[in-house]
Amino acid sequence: MGEHSQFGGSKAAQWLNCPGSVVNQSLLDYADDRSPEAAEGTKAHQVAELLYEGWTPPATLDPDMVAHGQRYVRGLRAIEALRGGVSWVEKRVVDPNNKAVYGTVDFINLSGRQLLIADYKYGEGDRVEVKVNPQLLTYSTVAIRDMALKPRTVTMAIYQPRGQNPGWRHWTVNADIIYEYGHRMDLAIKAVEDGSVETKAGPWCRYCSAKVKCRAFKEKHLDLIQRMKDGIHTLSTDEIGSILQSKPSIKKWLDAIDAYVKQTINLTRQPFHGFTAVQRVGRYEWLDAEHVQDALPLEQYPELYKRDLKTPKQVLELRPDLYDIIDQLYRQLRYTTLVKIKEE
Fold first, then answer.
1. pLDDT (tens digit, 9 = 90+) per residue, 231-277?
2. Looking at the 3D structure of the chain, how many domains does it have?
3. Taking residues 221-230, what's their average pLDDT?
4. pLDDT > 70 in the chain, percent
5. Which of 69, 96, 100, 155 could form a disulfide with 48 if both were Cys (CB 3.0 to 4.6 A apart)?
C-alpha cells in the first residue's frame, strides 16, 4: 500500500506479531527517515503506472527502471488478456471496518468471482515469497472489504525484477483463507488500539524503528553479539546460523542506535556516554538533475553522458571550462559520524 498507514500492508508482519512495536514507534523521540531504497521504489512505481497508461519515458530516465517497468506492464497486460474482467492500477482502498487501515494496491483484476492482487517489488535485496505473505493477505482483505467483493478464489502475485530469481510468483487460495486472515488482522489491530505493549522479536524487526529501544530485540541478539568478542569458536553452529538469519535486522538495529545517538547529541548539544558527533564532507551531487540537463543538453555535450548524466566531479574533470555554468547546480554532501572522545 503506497501510503503509510500504521497498519499498512508493508508492516503487516510487524503489527500482526508484535503489537507493542506500533505503540513504541509512535512514542519514539527520534526521526527514522525513509531509506534511499524506499525512495527508489516509490519512483519505480510511479514510472510503472505511467507506462501502463501509455506514457513515453524521456531518454534521460534510468533505462533499467524503465525496462523493468515495461516488463511489469507487459505482465499486467498478459494477465488482463488471459483473465479478462476489469482492472485497477494504483487503487486506493480503505478498510470500512477500521479507517486507520488504508493504502494503495499496485494492481487489482476482477474476473467474475476470481480476484487477483499484484504487488510490484522493485528492491534488489532478499527474494520476497508470495505464499502466506502478510502484506498481500492484508491487501486482499482490505480490497475485498472496501470494494464489497465476493470472490471465490484470490490469486496473489509478486513481480520482483531484480534480486534472487527475478520474475513473477503467484499463489492462489480459496477466499475463505482471506476471510480467516481478516479475522486475525482485526484482532491484532484491536490489540494495538487497546494499547498492548507485548513485543516479540523476529524477522519483522528488520524495518522497525522502535528496535533501537526494544528489550525483546536486545534480549534475542545482544547476548550472541557479546559472546562473539570471545571468538566465533565459542558459538555453536546453530547460534552462528541464528546470527546469519538475523544479520539484516542486527545491522538495521545498529544503524537505528547510531541515528538515535546522533539526534540526541544534536538536540542536547552534549556528548553521549563518551561519544560526540562530527560533521564530515562527502561526495558532490546535483541539486536538480533536470536543471543540469537543461544547462548541459545531451546533444551539445554527449561526452558528459554515459547512460545518465555524470557526477559533478566527473563533469569538471572532463570539462573544467564548464565551472561557471554548473557552479550553482551542485553541492557537496555533508554527513555526521560518531567519534569516541579521547580520554585525557
1. 777 778 887 887 787 777 778 778 888 888 998 998 898 999 999 99
2. 3
3. 70
4. 94
5. 69
Please tell me whether residues 289 and 177 are part of one structural domain: no
User: Residue 70 is inside which H or E element, if any?
Assistant: helix 63-83
**Which residue type does 146 have?**
D
Closest by alpha carbon to 144, among 201, 86, 206, 96? 96
Which of 130, 160, 193 finishes a domain?
Answer: 193
pLDDT at 2: 45
The CA-based angle 276-282-284, given to 5 degrees, is 150
Q: How far apart are the first and last CA of the chain?
A: 53
In tens, the pLDDT along 184-195 reads: 999 999 999 998
**Residue 15 · residue 192 · CB < 8 Å:** yes
Q: How far is CA 18 from CA 131, 192, 204, 263, in A?
A: 21, 9, 8, 26
DSSP state of 30: S
The x, y and z cell numbers of residue 79, run together, are: 494477465
How far apart, in whole angstroms, are the C-alpha atoms of residue 86 and residue 253?
Answer: 43
Which of 52-61, 78-87, 284-293, 319-328 has maximum average pLDDT?
Answer: 78-87
Structural domain containing residue 263:
203-268
Q: Return the pLDDT at 109.
A: 98
**C-alpha torsion 316→320→326→332, nearest 10:** 40
Q: Return the C-alpha cell found at 254.
A: 545498529
